[in-house]
Design brief:
The chain is mostly helical and about 60 residues long. It contains three helices and no strands. The longest helix has 18 residues. It is elongated and about 55 Å long.
Length: about 60
């Protein structure tokens, strides 16, 4: 019974990671831009600045 629970927990965890868009993609930038600013982590802020804001300036 415990083994089945662990396997189910592992599969659930792995499937949750597959749903996130890749960091730096347009979908990821839109998701982060739509989040309340208080919920962002420092890593998300840094990745957003590097991949979404600065990418737009360098392409112009």
């Amino acid at each position: 019974m415990k083994l089945r629970f662990r396997i189910l927990l592992l599969l659930t965890t792995l499937s949750a990671f597959g749903c996130e868009p890749e960091v730096g993609s347009d979908a990821w930038c839109e998701n982060v831009a739509g989040k309340p600013k208080g919920e962002l982590t420092m890593n998300e802020v840094a990745d957003f600045a590097k991949n979404c804001i600065l990418k737009n300036y360098s392409s112009e």
